[in-house]
User: Fold these one by one.
Assistant:
Number 1:
Amino acid sequence: MTTLLEAQSISMTVGGATLVDAVSLRIGAGEMVAIVGPNGAGKSTLLRMLSGDIRPSRGAITLKQRDLHAYGPRALAEHRAMLSQHVNVSFPFTVEEIVGMGAGESPRAVARALVAAALDEVGLEHFRSRQLPTLSGGEQQRAHFARVLVQLACGEALHGPGLLLLDEPTSSLDLRHQIDLVETARRRAARGTAVIAILHDLNLAMRFADRVLLLHRGRLAIDGDRTAAMQADTLRQIFEIDATIDYTGDGVPFLLPQTMRPAGKAT
Amino acid sequence: MSVLAERRARAKQRRAGLSLRPAATLTLLCLLAALAGTTLIALTVGAAGIPLTRLPAALGLWADSTANPLLARDQLVVWSIRIPRIAAAAMVGALLAVSGAIMQGLFRNPLADPALVGVSSGGAFAAAAAIVFTDSHLGGSLRFLQHQLLPVAAFAGSLITTIVLYGIASRGGRTSIAIFLLAGLAIAAIANAGIGLLVFVADDRQLRDITFWMLGSLSGATWAKLTALAPVLAVALIACLSIARGLDVLVLGEAEAFHSGVDVERLKRVSIVLVSAMTGVAVSVCGVVGFVGIVVPHLLRLVIGPAHRLLLPASALLGAVLLVGADTVARTIVAPAEMPIGILTAAIGAPFFLAMLLRQRGLVSL
């Protein structure tokens, strides 16, 4: 497996506080990686460093064997696509126009075909002429996901498999669309894209990822397969919850938090 | 389908958020036709009326067969007064509308306007300072440069104001609408205090010149001033098209625009210089004329959508139409006197701005 992205002991310090502390990782083409961890563990900061958005205070990141910060914004966008957590659009752009922004300077016919395919994939083709601000939060999130898919497709057509970064892509989605999004990302990984996603829902992360990065207080506590992260001790120590862990028929772990009061027995 | 039913169906689609947008070429052609029409009206009305039948001869298009005794006067009025004035109004309107549209794109906020947030005042303050300075003993040796110095001073004043405003209003890639508008008000107040101070120290002649900046008027338009306006407009319009896609993507926010491949820092620098140059030069020709930059792009977005590749050239045309029209009204409504055009645009634009605020109040929290 060829290494796509490599971080060597990267740290981020802001105003004396260390948000990410000496994290090293290597991500190969076709890998599906979930970043999990409690609030304030440094997940978003790590992802923003990996996207080239912010520069680590220490350490180095290479994308396809080249320093991440040696890429210009346009070249970088051809190798990695990233979906941020909150995107607010204040002007009445249509869904189609927003998704088309992912196509950059591609020829119009190419862009149109990619936009149609992406809208179809996220199930928004009937909303293509609607103004984005009139859509619900979840629908807007899917539209932005479609935009990022278009960007990824444009870059991969030029340079082969790229990097897809997702910061809590399912935060506004209903269950069905959470699974749809995850399946779409998996299909990209099957074609060689390296996917890294921050996910809060551990069960979704377990279904989604081949590999789990568990962050705790800025440090990489666990980097392994899903069973490595899903241990009762680890969950107690890092998430401060008691949970029952079980396995689905095909061996995927899932958890049920125990400290929640059972329904119907309100006192 | 009857016309009424069709109209109702269209209204329903609009309510549903569906957009019905006319083709780009059609829009630009309609705006060009509107500009031609307004120009024709502006050429014929005024203190000295020149009916349409006499216009071609006055323009020198063909010889006048009726041997009109007023031909010489008509020609003088048209060539030395009206054409420079109409051209100045059109160019200033275009500059103000486009700089408004760019500023709104840059701040991702439809309420941004160079005059409203003090950028014009900053330019006017610098221009007023240049008037007083070149008139003083200290700067007297630069007097002969006054014509060239004014646009440069106005540009510098606008540039500094825009940079300060951007620095205050945006933090970590996010721009707060409330802080932006309030900081703009404060900056406008500082610039106006500066102008007030200059008014206080100015002598009678300087006072007349400075008052002109504050109210805004096109009565001083000359061929010489047009030579300062035209190159800036031409360069700015071409440069605008190069940032159109960037401004579109910037609507997603600075971080997301960067992720999409936009060189955000460069885009911001180019936008700030363009807005300052356009506002500064417009201010140096006709003083502070407000609200053109807010009304024009807003109306256009409702019809043609927010994509800047079409919005910017269309804003230039509609801004030109609006200001040529407003100037024609300003110089005829209280004839033989003239109303400062700044008063007219504010009287129309301010209620419009309030209406926009009221509409927005329901949609987003400031």
Number 2:
Amino acid sequence: MEFKLILKKLNNTLTKAEGEQFEAWISESETHRSYFEKVQNSYQDTSSVVDIRKGWERINSKIKSPKGVSTYWKYAAAAVIILLLTLPFVIPTETPVDTTAPQVVEESITIGTDKATLTLEDGTKVALEKGKAYTTQALTSNGQQLVYAANKDANGQIKQNTLTIPRGGQFYLVLADGTKVWLNSDTELKYPVDFGPDSPRKVELVYGEAYFEVSPSIQNNGTHFLVATQGQEVDVLGTEFNIKAFREDTFIETTLVNGKVAIKDGNSINNLSPGLQSKINKTTREIRIAATDVSNVISWKDGLFSFKNMPLEEIMKVLSRWYDVDVKIMDGAKGKITFNGVFNRNQELKNILSIIENTNEAKFKTQGKTIMVE
Amino acid sequence: MDSNSVIQEIRNQNQFVYKKFFEDTYPELVHYANSYLFDQNWSEDIVQEVFIHLWEKANELEIKSSLKGYLYSMVRNRCLNFLKSLKITDDAKVLDMQSMLSSDYDLEFFSSDDLKVIHHQLLKVVEGLPSKMQQIVKMRFIENYKYVEIAEELGVSVNTVKTQLKRAKLKIGEQMAMLIALLMTQ
């Protein structure tokens, strides 16, 4: 298989025939897959250090030493090795030449991480982030995810908790019934600590984006799972789906990956089957259902940005939430230009911007935490 | 010490010269191998093998141009053979072009047929660069001008040429996947 098919795969531009060829190649051996992953990763990370000393030691142990090596040579070698030990060797990777004038120290733009604020039933707020463990009777968190314990004999009043993900954050949550929820940046979810034995399991996506893998009804006394979002209600029997309803969004978008859900809004009820997406206009409440590229919609949960024919202004909104930056579109026409591309979320914002800049369709200027599109 | 005396000394099994030469060239060769293999460990292994080969077979090597060029071409051949074992080919010369751009060394061992394909790819890729940068890249990599010659021709300083080339390489290198994909879909 030609190497360029790997590049085309990385950019989602394989034709059908090429795609089949690629799949055949990658599934042929683990080494093939691993090479593909190495190529993929290398486009995200270019820095590398070569250890000359280690390299030399390996060679030296393999080559035949010349006869009659003098003691002098051994001492000399030891001296050189000591010298080498004290010097860091770095591959001379080219550093960009900075032609701009020196700038004042600015707030730096950072890559999003796992973080959230948990609001308990009594209003107590707990900051969850990497390295900070938090445990109570009902829940356990290692700072990167939050798991509620199943408690079958829950009685009386059901306590509500709220998980708020800031801009630049993401989080993973397991509810008491075993339902898994991935939460994107700038998102808030309200849910009961426990679910009663007979009543529907009801949660509220207050705003933002969440991906649900719902624990099936049969494992929960046949109870339905309901997600309320800004007037819309999704009725679930056990399935996987994504809801996107950021505060600045015009639509509530519900995309079904697996199973079956009913979308209730006011008096209207619409069933979705897998691969379909419903879009409800938040003001007019008009609903539209159409097929969509599911993997594109849910790529965020796997740590990717996937932009398919997406206008630049939409792309910038997505980026602004993850990198917690403000975006100003100076030239409205530029905002309408559409782009295709898949990026790993775990990389610097400037990498992504420079790739977009390289199409010569738009220019970006960064000032502190504000990105201007020109 | 020039390239000829280096190989002569290595033939005489002068380990000092050999080691010095290793220290001078190992990182850049690993870097070069890595532009084919995308794996630091594989790349280091291949370059180490090449150096062992150099030490043990120094008397049998027929080096037409420079020793360094010879090692680069040996590294490339071994990388391509390794890729063959992964059932990867590169008739489109995407990897060659990419490694040519990312290497600081003049790679002089390509056949004229290979060069034709590489230049063709390169021309497509530089289209996205600013025009001056584009011109310098073409003069350097397609017309094979030296830095000084480019500087004279364009009436700029050698430093400007170097800077522009560095930036071009960086730009092309970093965005290679995206650029090539864009070009190939057109």
Number 3:
Amino acid sequence: MNKELTREERTDALGGMGCKRKRVEDARFTQGKGNYVDDIKLPGMLHGDFVRSPYAHAKVVSINTDAAMALDGVVAVLTAADLAPLGLHWMPTLAGDKQMVLADGKVLFQGQEVAYVVAKDRYIAADAVELVEVEYEELPVLTDPFAAMESDVVLREDLMGEGGALPDGAHGPRKHHNHIFTWEVGEKEATQQVLDEADVVAEEMVYYHRTHPCPLETCGCVASMDKVNGKLTLHGTFQAPHAIRTVVSLISGIEEHNIRVISPDIGGGFGNKVGAYPGYVCSVVASIVTGVPVKWVEDRMENLMTTAFARDYHMHGKISATKEGKITGLWCHTTADHGGFDACADPTKFPAGFMNICTGSYDIPTAYLAVDGVYTNKAPGGVSYRCSFRVTEAAYFIERMVEILAIELNMDAAELRRINFIKKDQFPYQSALGWEYDSGDYHTAWDKALKAVDYDGLRAEQAQRVEDFKAGKTRKLMGIGLTHFTEIVGAGPVKNCDILGLGMFDSCEIRIHPTGSAIARLGTISQGQGHATTFAQILATEIGLPADSITIEEGDTDTAPYGLGTYGSRSTPVAGAATAMAGRKIRAKAQMIAAYLLEVHDDDVEFDVDRFVVKGAPEKFKTMKEIAFAAYNQAIPGIEPGLEAVSYYDPPNMTYPFGAYVCVMDIDVDTGVTDIRRFYALDDCGTRINPMIIEGQVHGGLTEALAVALGQEIAYDDMGNVKTGTLMDFFLPTAWEVPNYETDHTVTPSPHHPIGAKGVGESPHVGGVPCFSNAVNDAFRAFGLRHTHMPHDHWRIWKTANELGLHG
Amino acid sequence: MIPAAFEYHRPKDLEGVLSVLVEHGDDARVLAGGHSLIPMMKLRMADVEHLIDLQDVAGMSGIAVDGGSVRIGAMTTQNDIITSDALAGAAPIMHEAALQIADPQVRYMGTVGGNVANGDPGNDMPGLMQCLDATFTLVGPDGERTVAAREFYEAAYMTDRDDAEVLTAVSFAAQAGGYAYEKQKRKIGDYATAAAAVLLTKEGGVCTSASIAMTNLSDTPIWSEAAGAALAGTSVDDAAISAAVGAMLGDIDPTEDNRGPIEFKRHAASVVLGRAIARAWSRA
Amino acid sequence: MSGKKHITMTVNGEAQEFLAEPRELLIHTLRERLNITGPHIGCETSHCGACTVTLDGKSVKSCTVFVAQADGADITTIEGLGNPDSLHVLQEAFKEHHGLQCGFCTPGMITRASKLLEENPSPTEEEVRFGMAGNICRCTGYQNIVKSILAAATEMNAAKEAAE
């Protein structure tokens, strides 16, 4: 036998938590052997394609499918009339509304699904789409939610009661026929009183524009109905496969045990792949009708125009403070543009997601938030694009309001934040809008960040730049963007978090094999986060078997335990906790087996890295590998054979990752061109499982933040036409436009999470967007700017400079 | 995004190309690198029944520098331009501009001929050709003719080329003096918000000649004779640059798009042009 | 109106011969006809580079090439760069430096990078960023992709030197 390893060597050999383990996923991806939805090819498979509305609001007068059906190779053309007898021409949305699967008499947004063509290959399907004749009668178009709330035009006749009555919606009373809900949190009167009596009040309308998650892989599925066995298999780009299975069962009537949903490799999600889309329903119906598999994969234009927009929040804010800068109150009224159907992906009780995290990192005693959801002639969606539910909106709002307050107070924005941070000893902290922040040490993070970038030096340099600009020596201004964000992730406690009535717990099931390797299955699904790598690390540390001997499997509802999927940075906080807890069950049984083998009492052995040792006699031990074998070959009195465990974890609270970011940006006042000179990101995600992967997540989230802040938008003209339907106009930066980032961290573990981890995938996006935006705004502060809206593309920056008179 | 079906032709010589063009008139289109035409066909915004692939046609690519003159075959790619030492000496502005077109992959496929013949106001080469006072060689059923780049463009996607003609080469005199190709865009792969091509010569501190053209600021490229004239005979000081910019602003007619409103584009044009002139002058 | 055309091509060293509609896009030929699914479809308008292959020595976006244009061509995809027993240096480097996350852009990214390093064996960071600007990644923010390519360049140069 080899020489005895030291404890440290044994720990390293596990590849457990905290190490920069290389990803096990990479072998197949780097060799082109990933298995994405569009790679799936089943015998006899047909292809589906949509006829879509060119109009944003129109009556569908008639649909003629004769010419399309006559085309050789076309198998079927489905319209709402075909789906109606099955009750599938409409489907429920995640937000308690319903959505047309195929146009039922009218269309409400450009690109809406009107008919579904099924053909032998995608070329024939595309040809047939051109041959479907649809007669439309255009209706007045509403693209502005404020105008929609004043308009006589009724977008959703299906929601009107008898004689023009206005029945309640899924979230209570509606104020107008284009109104969806009002959601209120906090104390309205008390907040108004605080504002009335405050030394200083800053007020601003902060608009967070509509954008889109735009993962590189679009949405798609392959539906395969096996009529002999009555089983439906649905492969798809699903961030929540189990939830999709339940939804498909509920709307199709197929019993849930006869449905198998499989999420194969997913080419990025970022929230786009949480929802259920008409393409899935039509493909399932088409497979049932034809008896063969049907594939549907949207193209990029369809993706940008129809599935899953994000943001589109008009946030009217007021923030009050004493003249010394102590914040006393926060008021926010948001008008939320939800498009033609309310398909926002939020927990049921939170129609505006966790927007009530908008008090941010600050100790604000009194606050009030109201959100009004409104229908318009835009695509439905409202997903959480790389953030927890509406948390980017909240973080952007508070981080802009704090900057504007600093201007009002004539204070340094870093100092204003410092004097208002929730203090370390205030945690767990009860926020005015109802959350209990688990842990934090904001002052330490903030000071570390400011020191790392030499904040005072930067401000001095900026002041000199302003002087130089005024003296005509330069045409470039310098912006210093600051952000201290607090996220709320890990949804969530079943007592208040559910989607369509499904509690937002998550799960892990572990089987240890006799030879000491293992498979663990989870209810989540990786879309690039590296779950197969990191969850094995958690387990390696928990059960003392090498990470390399542990297979992680997700995404197949026939084998994985029920879970709510991956979005909102919930995988590590919820499924990661389930993994640790299941691992501990394994360890508890292993302890009994070890004690039996060592012929001592259970309490006389203790876990030590990869083994159980007899207390006080470490030379007497049984390794986990030995214990695993014993579990399968020894008859141990009172203990069942085998070594398996399952855990369903209902988190007691959310987790609250936070971070301190600084961006230094140069802005060419004449062209509006921006240059990010430096970006420093300090993240505190609690316990760090794999620093390499964390860093990668931060780089990626910041880059998506850069895109959103500096140009990425879904823009409409007044007729409701999408102006940004391809990657020519929808801004995804290349390597050339993206800087190198400096990453840093502090570690404040979550007290309620089994391993103290908080989740990190979305923090950099949540914190990054306001940081980039604050840098742009800050560059013009010396010239009197209070606030300018995103996206800060060249012409909008130019316009800001122009309005400030900086072009002479 | 799936294109409609078409008949594919891949002739080996120009005769073969012309016979298809003559037979099918405007139902036929020639295909060079395809990176403008194919996306339009995939979006079903271009209806092409007969597609004539030029890749096998002999004699249509290559860069020939002969003393003071340069001839570039239409099928020469942007990447060929970037990697040509001969061209780097004879017309470094071509190198500077080609690097600012699209992205690496597109530059391997995108050709000079396609870029100048398509008539897309967003393309960079047309303005550059006007700046260089290039001539285009067109071959049709009635033989070969040449047309000045400055006379070629009529409106967006409308040029002097007859439906039955093929643009086979561009020719221009080797450049002398200072040069600059300045382009503002939103990201790699984007068309210009504003782009300027400037060539000028200098003797004893005085500008002796200047040629200036701009891209994507009208429905055709804009070569402004007045802008060039405003620099000639001056020391290219601020006043002269302002005069040149002013002259150019009188000739452009931008439209609003996602890159911004007209007012911004006019401003960006003036800044981009001013910088291009200054850079060209510094190199003269 | 359009008949099928007889096509021959060499893909990853293997001769292929088939009949296809001229309009068939090369990316579909590879993925659906030849079951070479490494190259992916991302944007379909030649902006994202997920479909990048090497065609007759050029980095090309195969979503914007008709199969008829590629008749007679020699094509290399990610599948032809390395194999499980002998990975390409770039394939190793992307794993080593965490140059990928969801993996969807990776085949196009590595295929393009292989051509870049062939043409410029010792690029600067700026040259890598410029030379890779035809490939979009939504996950990594590029920092580790650039790092991977630079590391691969160093390693390939060292191997070359050792061999000389």
Number 4:
Amino acid sequence: MTLSEFDSFRPTKPGGRRRKDGKSARGRRGDYGDGSREMPMVPEPEFTSYYGRPVVKPAPWGDDVAIYLFLGGVAAGSALLGVGGQLTGRPTLRRNARLGALAAVSAGAVALVKDLGRPERFLNMLRTFKVTSPMSVGSWILSAFSAGAGVSAVAEIDRMSGHRLPLGPLRKVLQAVEGPAGVEAAVFAGPLAAYTAVLLGDTATPTWNAAHEELPFVFVSSACLASAGLAMVTTPVREAGPARNLALLGVVGDVVAMKVMEHRMDPIAAEPLRQGKAGTLLKWSERLAVAGGVGTLLGGRNRVVAAASGLALLAASALTRFGVFEAGLASAKDPRYTIEPQKNRLAARRAAGVTGDAITTGG
Amino acid sequence: MGQLSGPTDPTADAHWEHSHPRKGFFTDTSICIGCKACEVACKEWNHNPQDGDLELLGSSYDNTGALGASTWRHVAFIEQGQERIIEARESGRALVNLGMPRIGPPTSEPSPMDLAEADTTPPDTADFRWLMSSDVCKHCTHAGCLDVCPTGALFRTEFGTVVVQDDVCNGCGTCVAGCPFGVIERRSNGTVKVAASREEQHAKHPEVPNVGVAQKCTLCYDRLVADETPACAKACPTTSIKFGDHDDMVETARERVSALHAQGLTEARLYGANENDGVGGTGSVFLLLDEPEVYGLPPDPRVPTADLPRMYRRAGMAVAGMAAAAALAFLGGRA
């Protein structure tokens, strides 16, 4: 340590290096870099990160991507409700679900493009098909889904406007393909809802990667309850029966999958799901999902209760997506979530006698 | 689709028809003097703009911070006391005692009179040491960034390295999250600052190049095709950064670590030299003097794509579940 005449001007060294929850602080998070004081440079024995700096980088994604996760799910579930309405003769449900699917997928696609570093190059997404890239696979799923959702929704708009769209001879073509288009969109609906979970799982972001086993189940459940919620808001209770059923299945799936996920994933990597902003979002997501589910179960045949439950479910799904999204970003920003699970799994493999697969070798 | 994990020759795996030897770095941190010539040479050659606001970061002599879109070489500085040195020596000894399978012939111990070796040995100060290490893109055998890139902007070169094509990348950012080492980054802004006295000359300088696209070390691809050494290795005054055929680099690294062990410096260990690790071995091999996390390196990185087939299967099950739920919703009772 240096001793200079300026030492007396320095603020006192920050107190204990213990966090409120009693765990030892790793590295020297938050107590460097503001330039207001010189810090002691000799690390403490518990030092296990490089000046508390992150090891992996968080994805440079803004809220647009979380919004897309939500809207993609709404669109996917809506397409399933639309094809169900189409096949079981529920014209209002069919119409509202198809319109919902197109609106959600369009807004979602805009959000995605807006988040690109070079939005003008968004078509490069379809430059190749790469099965190792969930983003590439997802872009093709999104395109295929949008084609079917678009055609079937345009057919609905044409019908609602009394065949006033300037389609000319194409109207007959549109009417002929709207049914198959609805089915086509429904075929790609499941993949659209699930691929985003693979997209997040296939990253080095600790919490997302550790959640990769159960995240697809969380996301499809969330898509089901959100789209069912939208249908319950838009569609009279007489035709919304299947939406209520789907909402209940979605709520059960969502709550169960989330619990199983948190239980099975690495306990340290699961922490960001319970802490901070993400923890709050996910807590409220669960509450709203349960509230919406109970409302659906008990008062789903009342138009007002159904609409309120639907809104609760939509909000629950949005909070789930934002919560998982935020938890991942938080886990990437703290080196602890990268280093500790990796050290633990390395130690576990060594304890089990597997010594040949470490990146660090003695020679 | 090539191999997703395990040992392989990345160039052959990427279906290059003519075979170049795989190129790579061996960064021997035991002889790094922290001069940052590599950082400067890299910035100069690759026209990388300024990163950060010229702030002092309070992390020893490291005011660069970390690898990023505009920083492709980063010299880490770590100051350690006696306790930590002893710990590092013990953890290194434990690695040797694990009895890792060795590849290649056993190396002979260097003679203690070998002055060339003696010169490069870090001074054995018992109570204090200063670790310096020049970090760089690992050019992994199984590169997370390359695997998840949706546009094909990232590609495997004939030298087995991983390079971004600036004009193809649309800045989706998936690669940033895909890298287990936190190397690649999307260039958001940054300024090419100019010297005030030479304003007219520098006024002609272009704006920050490649804003919004992913950027990282190319292992100086433009120099490799001309049979030149990458700028950082060329500039390194102590040969801490060595460049050459990957196989030679690994062999050199093994010889060096044995030599250090023979001198009693059991804290020396290799990072990235094992082709059975989570990324299939790295193109940039390091000799470290402490645990990797001390240098900001992940202790057990694993390319996320190694689990991708499993993830797709789980997603397939979820899709089936969603379809079944929708069918049940329409066919089931209650409604």
